[in-house]
Design a protein that fits this description.
The protein is built from 6 helices and 41 strands. The strands form 5 sheets. The protein has a 22-stranded antiparallel barrel. It has a 6-stranded mixed beta sheet with strand order 2-3-8-9-6-7, with no helix packed on it. The radius of gyration is 32 Å and the shape is globular. The longest helix is centred in the N-terminal third of the chain and has 30 residues, at 6-35. The chain is mostly beta strands. Strand 11 and strand 12 form a beta hairpin.
Length: 729
């Protein structure tokens, strides 16, 4: 790839001229010494002039190919420089990151998700300051200078975050930009639009977001078949065969969001970031009709079912982040946030048979809030070593009211206080070690249940570094307690064939989770990259929610189901076939092993994928992604799971200075209906999901942006153009 060589050429020309002048002066000086007179000896002057004229002052540098490296090792990670062609042809940051094919970063453009190869979340920073995903996505790609991928950075400005993406971009001295995005999905009839605006004024930066979406989809079909091996109260075995088929005849829903962000950076020692926003959704009409056939001892019962459902939800949020460098060695930080939820649901179910008609109406009104605050202090010790202390208090509060259940009111509260100690040190210039230990105390209170007090601890280590400039490694191990999901407390119910239900409160405990992880990336050259990620993890005394058959009733309860462990491996190779065409091949393998209980299984899943990115010029970009089936899983108690899930996704986009238009197509899902077959010692389950569009969709997106003001660029990054090398003469 070429680098701009104007400065290099100027430097070489200046060097040559200086060398020539020095040579002339040296020749004149030598002539003066030999003749003893510089003005009266005309012959000597003529001789010097003749000698000078006869010398050819030129340098044959031959041809030197200089390849500008797109990746460079930096402290605690790697920095990647995007090609100018990719920046010009990308309409947002996620598309640029996808086209860059960063070895340890997975970008899902279809769902707007970015994660590590082991599906861990990234924390985003912009020019070393915390940033939301909304802010990062809406960056103008042409303003991005480099992308830094950091692992457990020692620098306290990254707050001990494990996986960090720090984007270095041009900043505004004043002014900003506004972006308008519109998207419409045809066939499935969905759409959304949003507006994003950024404004820099003095030492403050303001951001405003707003948008909404709608869905008007019908025709999704669900087919399920079950064979349950059950026992009655006396312990006698019997079999229940159930077949169900239902279709969504009406589904109307809408979403909306709004937010404002204010950042103040008065100097290099202090900064504050405040975010406030709201997200809402409303489904005024959802209707699903179907039938259920039960066969018990050869006798079949057919029932027609109807579900009329409506719901609304509002989620406000507020967060505050403050950072202060008290001295060169002491760094203080406060992070606080609160997320609320207000949910209303009206569920009316009707079951009709030849003999009877049963109706079940359940109305739910739930209010919840989850406040959290963390105070952190970091102290920099000699030899680039950091000691950190974090004090956190986190609460989850639910207040739920029901109609149509035996328990009409339910309260659930959990409060967790933790003290966390972190220690990071440099083992050498290229390697660093991070140690993390925490102590937790949790108090859980529920309606009609005894309080639960639990004390737990968390431990973690991470060793990361590189060998040379092209090989990077990460080793980590972790042990931590994880709480059961709140729905395990608040949504436990028993259900019979007449849809009558009750709310229950299970006595659940926190679970013990462990994991070991290894990541390796090899930046072979600007054309080729390889990444390998593996993880071994598990849970002791795992708790899961599932159906338990007993006495003609299917119970949905949390149960302890022994231990589980999982091995995960992800291997990816990327290669630039040409300066405009890149290919990556990847394969994901998972082995999941569950011991004990009715969920005992041992399954393997292997899923290959192929991705192409084609950028013929600075305006067009084409993506193609093909994903294979999940594969077949075997159960050690006798049984298997067979899941067919194929996907082909195509995108073509055109980007100009101020607008972008893109077309997404899912063309072949008609032939790739998702189907699952699972057989265990207690049940044989078939399920299939399809819709009238057979998964096909065509999505058209339009984006327009305009900027105002003046930008400043303090970076010394080299801008990479499209070719692989530059010729310097």
């Amino acid at each position: 790839m070429k680098i701009q060589v104007r400065r290099i050429s100027t430097y070489l020309l200046t060097t040559v001229l200086v060398w020539m002048t020095t040579g002339i002066m040296s020749a004149q000086s030598k002539s003066t010494t030999d003749n003893g007179n510089t003005s009266s000896d005309k012959k000597s002057e003529e001789k010097v002039e003749a000698d000078t004229d006869s010398i050819e002052y030129s340098i044959d540098l031959k041809e030197i190919a200089v390849e500008a490296q797109m990746s460079m090792a930096i402290e605690d990670g790697q920095a990647y420089i995007p090609k100018k062609r990719l920046k010009d042809a990308s309409f947002n940051t996620f598309q640029l990151l996808s086209a860059m094919h960063l070895p340890l970063v997975r970008v899902d453009l279809v769902n707007g998700k970015i994660s590590t190869n082991t599906d861990q979340a990234f924390t985003f920073y912009l020019n070393g300051l915390e940033a939301s995903q909304v802010e990062i996505v809406n960056l103008r790609p042409k303003d991005i200078l480099r992308v830094e991928v950091l692992k457990n950075p020692v620098n306290p400005q990254f707050h001990g975050d494990e996986n960090v993406i720090n984007i270095i971009a041009k900043e505004y001295q004043y002014g900003g930009f506004t972006t308008i995005n519109l998207n419409e999905k045809f066939i499935i009839n969905e759409g959304n639009g949003d507006v994003y605006s950024k404004l820099v004024k003095g030492k403050s930066t303001w951001q405003f977001t707003g948008g909404g979406g709608y869905a008007n989809t019908n025709g999704t079909v669900y087919e399920n078949g079950y064979v349950y091996n059950m026992r009655d109260e006396a312990g006698n075995p019997w079999t229940l065969e159930r077949a169900s088929r239902s279709e969504i005849t009406r589904r109307r829903s809408g979403t909306y969001n709004a937010g404002v962000q204010w950042r103040l950076v008065p100097d290099s020692r202090f900064n504050v970031l405040i975010n406030a926003g709201v997200f809402g959704s409303r489904m005024p009409d959802y209707k699903r009709d179907g039938s259920v056939t039960d066969i018990i001892a050869g006798d079949a019962t057919v029932k027609n079912t109807t579900v009329d459902f409506s719901s609304s939800r509002v989620i406000p949020s507020l967060s505050v982040n403050m950072n202060y460098a008290a001295s060169d060695k002491l760094y203080l930080s406060f992070r606080g946030k609160a997320v609320g939820s207000i949910t209303n649901a009206n569920d009316c179910r009707t079951e009709q048979s030849i003999m009877q008609s049963v109706q079940f109406i359940n109305m739910t009104n739930e209010k919840g809030i989850s406040p959290e605050g963390t105070l952190s202090a970091y102290y920099l010790l000699p030899n680039n070593t950091q000691l950190g202390l974090h004090l956190t208090d986190r609460a989850t509060i639910f207040n739920t009211a029901y109609t149509g259940n035996t328990i009409a009111h339910h309260r659930f509260t959990t409060n967790t206080t933790s003290a966390r100690l972190t220690y990071a040190m440099k083992l050498s210039k290229s390697w660093n070690l991070s140690l993390d230990a925490s102590y937790f105390h949790s108090l859980t209170t529920q309606s009609n249940s005894d309080n639960m007090n639990e004390d737990m601890w968390n431990g973690k280590f991470t060793l990361s570094g590189r060998a040379g400039q092209k090989h990077s490694f990460t080793f980590s191990g972790e042990y931590k307690p994880t709480p059961p999901s709140p729905y395990m407390y608040t949504s436990v119910f028993t259900q019979n064939t007449s849809y009558t239900g009750t709310i229950g409160n299970a006595d659940l405990k926190w679970q013990k989770y462990y994991s070991f992880m290894f990541n390796y990336s090899w930046f072979i050259s600007n054309k080729a990259r390889v990444a390998l990620s593996t993880q071994y993890s598990g849970t002791a005394d795992a708790i899961v929610n599932s159906y338990v058959p007993y006495n003609n009733i299917m119970y949905t309860v949390p149960v302890t189901s022994g231990n589980n462990d999982e091995f995960y491996a992800f291997l990816m190779g990327e290669y630039d076939l040409t300066s405009s065409l890149s290919l990556d091949l990847a394969v994901t393998a998972r082995r999941f092993h569950q011991t004990g209980g009715i969920f005992g299984l041992n399954k393997w899943i292997c899923m290959p994928s192929i991705n192409l990115t084609y950028t013929p010029n600075n305006h067009f970009m084409v993506h193609a992604s093909f994903t294979g089936p999940d594969g077949r899983a075997s159960f050690y108690q006798g049984g298997y799971e067979d899941r067919k899930d194929w996907n082909l996704w195509l995108r073509g986009s055109y980007t100009d200075k101020s607008f972008n238009i893109s077309l997404d197509i899912l063309p072949l899902n008609k032939y790739f209906t998702t189907a699952t077959h699972m057989a265990t010692s207690v049940a044989d389950v078939h399920s299939k999901v399809m819709d009238r569009a057979y998964g096909r969709s065509v999505s058209l997106s339009f984006s327009y942006n305009f900027e105002y003001g003046k930008k400043i660029d303090h970076s010394k990054s080299i801008e990479i153009s499209n070719s692989a090398s530059s010729t310097v003469r």
